[in-house]
Structure formats: structure tokens, C-alpha cells
Specification:
This protein is 33% helix and 21% strand. The chain is α/β, with parallel strands linked by helices and 500 residues long.
Length: 500
Amino acid sequence: MKTTFQTGDAAAIETELLVVFSTDAATGKDSKPEISLLTGEEALQKAASGVLTTGEFASGSNETVLLHAPAGLKAKRLLVVGLDKQAKAAAHDVRKAAGTAVRLAKPRKLRELAIVLPNTFDAAAVARAAVEGALIADFDPDTYRSDRKDQSIQSLAIVAAEGIDKKAAESGFEEGRIIGESQNFTRTLVNEPGNRMTPTILGQKAAEMAQEFGLKCEVFGAEKLHELKMGAFWSVTQGSDEPPALIVMEYTPENAPADGPVLGLVGKGITFDTGGISIKPSDNMEKMKYDMAGGAAMIGAMRAIAQLKPAVKVISIVTAAENMPSGKAFKPGDVEIAMSGKSIEIINTDAEGRLVLADGLAYARQLGATHLIDAATLTGAVAVALGQINAGVFSNDEDTYEHFAGALAKSGERFWRLPLDEEYREQIRSDIADIKNTGGRYGGAITAAMFLKEFAEDTPWIHLDIASMAWLDDAKAWTAKGPTGVGVRSIVEWVRSYGK
């Protein structure tokens, strides 16, 4: 998709589809809708006035009304997308509304559209949200269909018309373009099937991205794992014929303070997860290609960081492997020694993600990371706790978490903080080793986080359990089903909060 930023008279734009947003200003529960078009342009107000006063359009969240040959406009069509009640509407709602516009355009074979920024929100925030939403909506997962019909939007214009701070909007537009494209890059990685996205191939994709955007990247194999004594990581890989990949990316800006923080981004990269000897049920196992979504999020985040250039050093580690059952595979009851020296009793080989992350976190600390964030499709328990509305977030440090909370305010992603009370550690205490890799039925997302906390040690740390949100089983009005790229926007903003 070619994206451009424009200023001036939206009514004069020649396009297949011109998009504007609206809210309902009515305050009472039973009040008649009072639809407000969020633009100062009189020509757009006039073109939409007929349908906005009939009562057939209530401006509900992502509700649409499409007008053909709108009077007084050069555009062939005018689309009004609702943002819900005026009192509730925020810049974040524009992200979904812009996505709704793109998803409406694609099956109608409309290949170009222009989105008029609403004039009632912060200009930078709303411009960023609009372009992110549009880019995210343009993704479809049907990569390998022989009859695939490319419905991609070819041209998108983000328009700052009357009443918009043009400079701020253009800055937000550029940020949104970079972040939206990076989120889609993550989604393309996650969407690949396991036979076409092995650990080796994931390492190649990361290296290609790093070379394109000026990052340092090294990809190591089994020999490096043995050299570093990554027994936890290695145990997961040993059942597969596919070699592991330890992917290390570095971003070192010249303007980073010498005494500033070093941020460590660690991602789980299980390119296919059978569960190993503790094999998963066959139903839905095909989705386990998405078990590398945390690692892919870190690769996408680094792609955006390289372009946004925050003044902070960042080290990213992705621990990539397949988890397979075989005569060589690790077994329940085994004891493995992690890089940090901690001994781990294996209770369930399907709790493998925390094992690869354990060594990834330790290695990030060894490389100098002073603050850590990890992302992983770690537990089904987080979906039981939070559904498919919020992802889970944990932290061992209040200041570090506050940075992440601030990042969420900008990213628009939804994470809910869960506890890390010390009592939960009792559930992962082992009789034979230091800890065991599962803690039983109750509090599964929390005990998994408690396990990782052992390897973050006293380093300020954030853990993102994205298992419930990394894959959509059904399409939404604003996005396709399949990989979501969740976490990319929030991780990027967390990094930027340390290096603006």
C-alpha cells in the first residue's frame, strides 16, 4: 500500500472513496441521535447532511453508511464511519474505524481511498491511529491460495483538512506508517506454516530485516547454546531434526547516553509446538505455527525501532526452536540446568516456552540489559483468565510497569496486569531441583510468570503473555482473522519511553 499525507480541501480530492468519522452528541439514554461529522469542511457536512438527519444512521462504534456520487465532492463515494457516543470517543477508536473503512473497501474492489482526520482529537495521535488502522486492515492471511484474488488497497491518503495541526499530524502519520508496517511484518512471519518458517528461516528473515534497516544481527545454532550452557533452551530443541536458532539483534544509537539504560527484548520463537512427549490434542494443533508470535513481535518491534531511532540502546533475543516428540526428545521427569545455573524439573514438555525464555532472559542480562521485556504465547490459562479481550502483563518493578502503562496509552493495545505474589512460587517448588516447569491447574499464567521471574532475578522486568490475543479465530469489522501482531505497538512505545 502506498501511503501519503495530504493537506488542504478534502472536498477537492479525487478518489474512489473518501472517509470521514462521526460521533453521536446525544447525552440521554433515550435521546434522539445527534450526529456530528468530525470535520470543519462545510462541503463534507452538506454532502452527508441528508443521511445524518434521517435517524437511519446512529454513529455506533464502526457503524457505516456509504453515499455514492456525493454532491459537491470530487470523490466518487463518501463513507461515514461512527465512533460511538461523543463523550466516549477517543483517538484510539479511529484506529478501528479506519480499519473498518479499509475492510469495507477491499471486497468492493476499491483500490484507493482518502481518510479525513477528525478535528476533535490530538492531531499526532489521531493521524498515527488512522494510518495504523488502515495498514493493519489491509492484511489478509490467504497467502498460499492458488485462486487468491489480491484485494489490497493500492493507495491511501491521510488528509489533514481544516482545523488540524498539520505539522503534528504529519509527524504522527510517519510514526503510524512505520509501526503499522512493522506490525504487518510480524503478522507475515506468524502466518507462515511450520514447514516454511523453521527456526533457521526465522533467523534468516530477522537477518534480512536487520540488514535492510541498519541493525546488527547474529544468528547462532546449537554450538552456541552448548557454549553458553543453555540447557533449558537446548532441552526443547533436542527432539527435532530442525536446528535451533539463537537470534541476537542490536540497536545502538550514537545519541544514547553512556550511563543510560540498556533494554533487553526477549521473544519466544517456537516455530511449531506439538507439545513434545506431553503431546497436544490433534484438534487445532495446526495453529501451533503461531507459537513464535512473541519472537516475531520482537523482530517487528526492532524493525520499527530502527526507523524511529529512540536514544536508547536495545538488545533483542529470540530463542527459536521446534518442540517435537522423538527418541531424542526431553521427557517428563528430566532435570535440566539453565544458563543461570538453576536446575529445572520437567513436569510437562508442553510448558517449553518458559524454558527457552529462561535462557533468553539470562543471556540478555549477560549482554548488559538493565531492563527486560519478554513476549510469548505462553499459556492457555491467560485466555481462561482474560478471554480474548486483554493480554496478560506481569512485572517485578513498579517504575518499569509505569513505563509500560504509559506505552499502552499510546499504542491502544489492551493488557491487564496480573499478580506476582511470592506465595505463587510454592506451586513451582520442586522436590528434586530448584524449580519445576509447571505449577499445577490453578493460576497457570501466574505460575508461568513466576518461573520466568526466577531468571529475570533482580533486573526490572515485564512479561507479556499474548497467547489469547496473538491469533484471531474470526474476522472483525476492522481486521482479518489470523495473526494479529499484538505487542509490537506497545513494545515499541515502551522502548521509546526510555529514549525520547
